[in-house]
Write a structure and sequence with these properties.
One of its GO terms (cellular component) is mitochondrion. The chain is α/β, with parallel strands linked by helices. Helices cover about 45% and strands about 15% of the residues.
Length: about 210
């Protein structure tokens, strides 16, 4: 995916915007489903859709909703008329969003490449840049976060943290429930074992 942005920069949507370096871009985009959101803070249809997209993104990436963020990244490609309008819109959106800098001609290149003629539009891409969904606006509206599972399968992502997280979760469950399971599944001792146990404890056998 980083190849799509070779030689380009994206801004991070933080309190103080930072330009992502090529290395940071590679880490940010690697092994993730990429959403290119074409929109504008002034477009009436975009104003209706933006809160839906914001909630969609947060429910998949924010620790308030999920233990581990989904392998998802979003880049805002704006049609805002001024830099101030773009900045104002981004301030109301999740901090993990990235954006093509205002005034960058690369925005037009992306529109042409993915055939975007109207906004809002959400192009869903595999890590290798192949298109999964040409415009997922209706799907996001209808299905919500559940549609990410289909994209994840289509993207053939490698979940590098899955086994580690699974082992950790299993360890946590085991540490909490082990005493109960040992009690529930306690094996009855044989008479010989009981007799041996009493001798080891210093008891006289009858």
């Amino acid at each position: 995916m980083a190849a799509l942005f070779t030689g380009k920069v994206l801004t991070g949507n933080r309190e103080r915007d930072e330009v992502e370096t090529e290395r940071e871009l590679g880490l940010a985009l690697e092994n993730k489903v990429l959403l290119l959101y074409f929109g504008s803070g002034q477009c009436p249809r975009c104003r209706q859709f933006a809160p839906i997209l914001k909630d969609f993104f947060l429910r998949l990436t924010d620790e308030f909703y999920v233990e581990r963020a989904s392998q998802l990244v979003l880049v805002y490609v704006s049609r805002d008329e001024t830099e101030e309008q773009q900045s104002a819109f981004l301030r109301s959106m999740p901090k993990r969003w990235l954006a093509v800098p205002f005034g960058d001609a690369f925005k037009r290149d992306l529109e042409l490449r993915f055939g975007v003629s109207e906004v809002p539009a959400v192009v869903v891409l595999r890590p290798d840049g192949e298109v999964i969904v040409g415009n997922a606006v209706d799907e996001i509206r209808r299905v919500g976060p559940a549609c990410f599972r289909n994209w994840q399968e289509a993207a053939e992502l490698v979940d590098r943290n899955f086994l580690l997280a699974e082992d950790f979760d299993e360890l946590s469950r085991r540490s909490i429930t082990d005493p109960f399971r040992r009690l529930k599944y306690k094996v009855e001792k044989t008479p010989e074992e009981k007799k041996k146990g009493r001798k080891e404890d210093g008891e006289e056998s009858p």
